[in-house]
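Milestone 3.1: sequence recovery, worked example.
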């Protein structure tokens, strides 16, 4: 924590993730002030500002970036606009918290390193899961040898949405399940193994009309073990992650969008009884991971901490996604 004044935030766009999740959480901490929101539709920006109590609304992103009273930008625009507008924000002297995935591919993401360094600003990818106490606890358990050497991580994340007007259904906007939600088990697996995968293989099923990937099954090979996951944009909603060690396993019941108003459960099972009957339940108090993400970003800007997910980390995550897409075409293992 720091005694620095609260960061003054501007929001690029009125996406649901911004207006329903991130901004309401920002408003609960004294480390942040949301001072402006912009949309290419001024009335949409005014409506969001009025609903959320934001003082200023702009009818263009350029106007928001020109506001000298804004310190930091949150970028929840469609995926294909993440890098272009994050660079423009950095060139305007603003710190940037950019929604995941930070780019459409790793080469595009690398441009953010130059934008950050030449402008002396902070840029981070908004993987809020890496600030949640349940995942900090899981990492502590693994590093503390609670389940023996970690060998396998498995995960699944799915929802059902098939709407031609949704950006997730537009291939040219970076739609599809892997970029939207498959990125979560990838970043968590890399973080928990504390390593980069040496190989990746995947099978991808695409929507026959939209062309976006709607079902992905993937396997990552690490020096210490493996990570496998599936994700789908046209499946029953469900999520789970399980970590397997030589002497036990850890199961995370709501790994990705943990609710802010209820406790989360992590199960540690050493396998002495069937069907997980021997599992010990660790309950973590309710936590708002979007608020925690905001506070961690403020600490990084103040120079008292590092961002949870740096641009370099984001580039590495995109490199894995790139390798999985290449593998789905080649039918072979691909190196990130």
């Amino acid at each position: 924590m720091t005694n620095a004044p609260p960061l003054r935030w501007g929001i690029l766009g009125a996406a649901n993730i911004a207006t329903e999740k991130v901004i309401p959480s920002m408003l609960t901490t004294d480390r942040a002030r949301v001072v402006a929101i912009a949309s290419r539709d001024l009335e949409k920006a005014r409506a969001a500002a009025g609903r959320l109590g934001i003082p200023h609304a702009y009818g263009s992103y350029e106007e928001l970036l020109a506001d000298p009273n804004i310190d930091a930008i949150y970028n929840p625009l469609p995926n294909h606009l993440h890098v272009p507008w994050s660079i423009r924000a950095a060139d305007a002297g603003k710190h940037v918290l950019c929604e995941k995935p930070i780019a459409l591919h790793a080469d595009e993401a690398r441009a953010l390193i130059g934008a950050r360094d030449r402008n002396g600003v902070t840029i981070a990818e908004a993987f809020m899961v890496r600030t949640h106490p349940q995942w900090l606890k899981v990492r502590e358990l693994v590093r503390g040898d609670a389940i023996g050497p970690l060998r396998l991580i498995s995960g699944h994340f799915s929802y059902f949405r098939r709407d031609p007007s949704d950006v997730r259904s537009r291939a040219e906007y970076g739609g599809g399940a892997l970029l939207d939600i498959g990125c979560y088990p990838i970043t968590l697996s890399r973080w928990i193994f504390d390593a980069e995968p040496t190989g990746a293989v995947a099978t991808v099923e695409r929507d026959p009309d939209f062309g976006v990937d709607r079902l992905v099954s993937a396997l990552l090979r690490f020096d210490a073990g493996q990570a496998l996951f599936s994700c789908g944009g046209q499946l029953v909603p469900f999520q789970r992650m399980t970590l397997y060690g030589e002497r036990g396993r850890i199961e995370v019941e709501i790994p990705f969008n943990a609710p802010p108003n209820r406790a989360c459960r992590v199960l540690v099972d050493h396998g002495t009884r069937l069907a997980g009957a021997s599992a010990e339940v660790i309950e973590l108090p309710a936590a708002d991971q979007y608020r925690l993400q905001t506070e961690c970003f403020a600490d990084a800007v103040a120079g008292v901490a590092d961002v949870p997910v740096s641009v370099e980390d984001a580039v590495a995550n995109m490199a894995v996604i790139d390798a999985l897409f290449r593998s789905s075409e080649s039918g072979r293992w691909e190196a990130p």
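The first strand starts at residue 7 and ends at 12. The chain has nine helices and 14 strands.
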